Amino acid sequence: MKSALAPPCRTSDGVQDRRVGIEIEFAALKPRDAATLVTQRFGGKVVEVDPHRYEIQEGRHGVFLVELDAQYAHPNEKLSDVEKRKPWLSEMANWLRDLDTEASRLIGDLGGDLIPCEVVCPPIPWTELNQIEDLYRALHKAGAAGTDEGLLYAFGLHMNVETSGTTVGHILPTLKAYLLLSPWLRSAIQVDGTRRIFPYIDPFPSSYIKRVCAPDYTPDLNAMIGDYLSFNPTRNRELDMLPLFSHLRAARVSGAVDDPRIKARPAYHWRLPNALFSGQEAGPLAEWSRWVTVERLAADSDGLDKACESFQGLSPLPLTDDVEVFSTDLAKAYCP
């Protein structure tokens, strides 16, 4: 199996290999069976959290999570909190918890293919992404169905790519490069029609793209985060920057976006790729190669400046033919 393509900057803050966390959504394979496949490749033991959620603990790289990706397929953890805070409600809380556990089990069992299963991998060094590729192929061989195998399968292959550093000098070039290459990425990935209907991977507003890609846009960290929150007060972006910005300015982000699902981490949360199991142009290694194209442009400061300058003459945004051609031609210069 081929190895992962090296990014321009291989380490985080010049210390250790940068890490990538992968989230794989699919149907037609039960969480318990998927968890077994994880242990076969990464070791560890399967711990049942509830009938539709499993943790693989004590294996290589850290804890893997395998679960049905639906809130109501899992027991409500708040019921346990009630019992702890108000012991006099213990008997009622026990009864409600048992009822809730059974209801969530039935919802998960009856949901079938309509509720996707998800494998959430811990951050692993980019040099070992071929191991996730092996797991990805094993899931398909065991029966996992991807985005293109059902009309309602709006499944994603998400990547949480650790930053090379947390200054504006590290982050802004990557954000600019991504915005310029977004039309090419959407075309190359051929984003599934069902996924486009839902808001989870919405493109960035054209006004925000114009602002960030202006040649004279040189904000400090607070201004960069402030602009992002002003134009994008939501998790629903193809490149979700909220986890990274929450890691850097938690209070600023929580004040603008009240969403408990935001998990602070020093990583770009890339939500765009489909979870496709067929063909060589899909899967973790293929999508990682596309991401490396973004980072190659970001690393070429002169090339990025010229691209931003050329981009200003294109109008209107976001999806005119000239923008598509510009983005595709730009990608060709930096593709692996």
Task: Provide a descriptive summary of the structure in words.
Helix content is 46%, strand content 14%. The chain has 336 residues and is an alpha+beta fold. Strands 3, 4, 5, 6, 7, 8, 9, 10 and 11 form a 9-stranded antiparallel beta sheet that branches. The protein has a two-stranded antiparallel sheet with strand order 1-2. α5 (168-189) crosses α11 (284-299), α5 (168-189) crosses α12 (301-311) and α9 crosses α10. Mean pLDDT is 88; it is low at 71-76 and 95-111.
Labels describing this entry:
336 residues; alpha+beta; 9-stranded antiparallel β-sheet; two-stranded antiparallel ribbon; 13 helices
In short:
This protein is an alpha+beta fold and 336 residues long. Helix content is 46%, strand content 14%. The strands form two sheets. Strands 3, 4, 5, 6, 7, 8, 9, 10 and 11 form a nine-stranded antiparallel β-sheet that branches. A two-stranded antiparallel sheet has the order 1-2.
General form: globular
Alpha-beta content class: alpha+beta
Could you estimate the helical fraction of the residues in percent?
40-55%
User: Number of helical runs?
Assistant: 13
Distance between the termini: 17 Å
Could you describe the largest sheet, including whether it forms a barrel? 9 strands, antiparallel
| Chain-averaged pLDDT | 88
Percent of sequence in beta strands: 5-15%
> What is the helix/strand order?
EEEHEEEHHEEHEHHHHEHHEHHH
Low-pLDDT stretches are 71-76, 95-111
C-alpha Rg, in Å? Answer: 21 Å
Please report the total strand number as a whole number.
11
